[in-house]
Amino acid sequence: MKHLSTIANSVLEQCSVIIGVHLEDLNEEFERGYKAGGTDDCYSRKFFEFCSSRALCAICRRMEFNISESSFSRLTFDMMLAWENPSSLTEESYMENVAKEREERMKPPNGGVQEAIEDIPLFYSDLMPLLVDDERNIGEDAFVWFSSVIPLAADILNARFAFETLTASTTGRLHYPAYDRFFKEIDKCIKYLQKPETPTCAELAEDEFILHVEGTAMTQRVVRHIGGTSWQEGVVFEFPEMTSSTRRDHWLTLIKEVTLLHQFLARFKIESRLQRWEAHARMILGIVRLHAAREMLRIFPPIPTNFLIFTLFDESPKGDLVLDELANGLRQTNSIHPCSPTSILRSMNVCPPYVWSMGIEEKMETSVGPEVAEDLASLESTISQVREEAKEIEIAKASVEGLKEEGITDSIIVLQELLSPLRGVWQWFQAVLKWERPTITLFVLATSLLIIYKEWIWPALAAILVWMVGLMLWVRRKRVRDKCKEIVICTSSDQTPMESIVSAQHALHQFYNIVQTTNIAILKSRSIFESRAPKHTNMVMWAMVGMAIVLIVVPLKYLLMGLLLYVVYMNSKAGRSMSMKQSNKRLKAWWDSIPVVSVRTVSGPCN
To answer: For the chain, what are the domain ranges?
Structure first.
């Protein structure tokens, strides 16, 4: 067809053979259901999706034989290439970009030949790095589309996360050698699950299924429940004969994924056996992909959570939104699509016996319908939102890591510098309180008394918040973030080493005095509360009763106004001239006469 690209025509010819329908007949069938509108590129892509999804549905019915063939990975990879460039116009644009990139590569970089070699993206296998620079490659959107049609290379829920992991060493583009190797490893894992050997120490129920067995010793458990005859006494897991934490962390990750699956089913009350197995099937395929990626990327092991759906969205911010979408989709499942996770595992003979006896009704659909497409679009929008917020959090966490590595001295210096703007505010407050500027002090006093008397505290707080918003807008308009991209703090000191040691000792002594004073105050307060000093306890109780009466009789606003006037007056010249030395001395003597509760420290366990 003229409106299609060369690779799209090639792939659709293969699809026509697989389906057993001529390409012209497929075009007529597509025209009957296609709603006119959009560009030629949109028409070409929709037609390509229609034909390729029908071919994939036919392939899924005999998946056990197809996945082991290299022609399957080649065809599906070409499908993704064609999806990116479905029309002849997009192909021309793509070829122009490739030609420009080749011209750029022909020019020696500033760093010479060595830098050019280092810039070549590599895919590392077990044996040697494969240079894949000139091979046509696919992007993230094509990989996500393919995963939405057939959840084998990835699930639609975590397709972008899996793609990011698989292309970490190839600058965000997936090359065929890596893709083909990934499918070969998936095929190995599937064959392993097809004939699992039941350990001699385990008895499986009808609905239980072995996901993975570590090692070759079938008589020794990798995970063992030790002690305790009741779940209320707690659960202890032992990992025998494990010398490193890699395998242990891997097993704990798998255990967590299975646990989160069952929590998901219980939380959303998924009761149907078909719906429950569909969730199990998605989890099993995720674990298969994780094992395949671990075998493929041994030099740089992948992040497990990027392949495990329930663990991924349990740790992601707003991941519950994605799980809500998944639960809603499962509740609407009353039959299975030929390319659903359940159908894929059944066609490859990977499922417990009870699944075969459920009498699952298989849909006769040969492609993805418009309702499914709308649901996928809504789900993709939610996933993109979660992913973007996760990236923002990772960037913010990375900016915090530098501060966590600083020592106690540098941290204190940074804290002092960050609090320096508040120092000016505190000095201004002290100046107002001490009547250094009588006009401002009178204005603040009158305003405060008016707010308290009229009970305008909440409107005053609202005005402060609005003022802060205005200040933030002013700072944004002045583009302070661009003028001051970082805060520079000098940690050097004019003190000699001996002076620094003395200063540190003095600061430590002050901190010790603060801790000791706090302990004494707590112990004396406990002594008063427990009536260890009856005389002082009686005085405190009478004082508290008097304060309670005052609080009942006198309105709170008058108490606040009186307290404010007292504080302002005592800081004025007239107030400072009044001697409070004798009263403070008597109060200190009363406090010192309170005995503390005795404290005894022991090194052993306390009873």
So the answer is: 6-175, 183-201+246-403
